[in-house]
Amino acid sequence: MLAKLSPRRAVRRHAVAGAVGLAMLGAALPTTAADDPQPDLTRFYRQKVAWKTCDGGPTSDDLQCGKVTVPLDYARPGAGTLELALARYRASGDKRGSLVLNFGGPGGPGVSELAHSGDDFMDLTDGYDVVSFDPRGVGRSSPVSCGDNPYGGTVITAGTDETLRDPGTVLRQLKKAAGECAKHSGPVLPHIGTVNTSRDLDVIRQALGDDKLNYLGFSYGTRLGAVYAAQFPDKVGRMALDGVDTLTESLTQQGMAGAQGQQTALEDFLDWCVKDVACPFGQDARTAREAVVRLIRSMDQDPVPTAFSGEFTGQDLVGALSQALYSRQMWPSLQHALASLVEDGDTSEVEAFATGGSALPGLGQGRQQRSPSADGALVDQDDVPLDNLPAALMAINCADDPDRPSARQITSNLGRLRAAYEEASPVFGPFRLTQVLLCYGRPKGTDFIREKVKNVDTAKMLLVGTRGDPATPYRWTTQTAKRLGPSAVVLDNKGDGHTGYASSKCVHSKVDAFLLYGTLPPNGSSCGSRSGEEAAP
């Protein structure tokens, strides 16, 4: 799940990730343990980044861009290469090296995120060049895509009566869609996933000239950081992980947790909204919740026409709500957007939250076609497919997950799962249940994360968990810390919203103190309170 560091940017960008944590239609990644004999990678580790002024796309005068080259397939480094896009803000103080950021997703492009969010990290330039990158399959780095319309114009939602009556038809649609994703993604798709991205990250570390990796990861970026710690324990420098992802739960379990967290966040929003006469759902919280469910169902049956994407469905609205509920600071904007939708039929403000990740790839959003890149060179920013973020999100999640339920298992379990998901959330349950289907028929993903990412022998790492996080529940922080072992130090953020760095001054200062000066808070110490430090707008 993409961390929302700046609410202002979330509305401004019109290209945000859906907080859906979906499974992926992409091909699986070969499982490679860190201690297996490896081919000669010397030429990749001898690179140095040639920084220059950024060309095109969102940028600032202070941002510099570069690239590194990595193997397409680490098992066969002579079989092709990929270029990865990098960007940095140079250190303004005494430089102790570089600090690499990953903003989450999976599928979030680091270069454009850093350009938009640079102000949030300027304190860190007191000691570091602050660097981010577009991972393989993401942004300008061989972006994956599923094309214009991989599902034939059908909204696939596992929670519908139609799906329960005829799951075979949906499974056939998913199998056909997987072929479309492969056709439009090029040679990178079989080699996408966190295990390979972690190896890319080590090549980046060396190209930056650092003996150890200093790293700040948000949401999915914590999964990447944990995998790096398992693969390259002696290369871990100062590592902070905010909004900690699970390393062990299945996609089905993750979907249930996400539905519950988002339902709680929605109810908190509606409790706040109904206190204002401008709330489009009235002044009673119970009836407001019922009205939201009715609105979603009616829009699934009769989508609202839009100038931007053709039509806007109820599931698109669910994706927009998922994104907007990441932060209480976005509540006023969400209220205004929903009022425009309900009262005027205007989807433009809601689309500002949803565009780029609210729906499955290609669903009614006018995606442009592109030819897969065979040479692994960076693509121009204007050539990044509009569906790249959701396509990459799903590709990476499937590559990271070894579970592949059969058609018979899906068919027999779908009714039970539907009931459980709807009990968790009548709004987000059907949307999140769809993830149970999305890896159907694909090769199994790697089991490296579940089996090998544990008991790491690294320098101390700071793990930040937020009690009211709707996307990465706090229990994942404590579970992951226990799994990683004594190296993990937990900071308990007693606040709300997805991740704590941008929303809590306390978290921000403690993370910066660790990254800049090596000062760790005591394990189990806390910031703020659920009703104190971070008040609702």
From TrEMBL:
GO molecular function: hydrolase activity
Classification via Pfam families: Abhydrolase_1, Abhydrolase_4
Cited InterPro entries: AB_hydrolase_1, AB_hydrolase_fold, Pept_S33_TAP-like_C, Serine_prot/Carboxylest_S33
Keyword Membrane among record annotations: no
Signal peptide interval: 1-33
Domain Peptidase S33 tripeptidyl aminopeptidase-like C-terminal: 425-527
Keywords per UniProt: Hydrolase, Signal
Region (Disordered): 356-382
Location of the AB hydrolase-1 domain: 106-288
Family from the record: Belongs to the peptidase S33 family.
Name of protein: Alpha/beta fold hydrolase
Native organism: Streptomyces chromofuscus
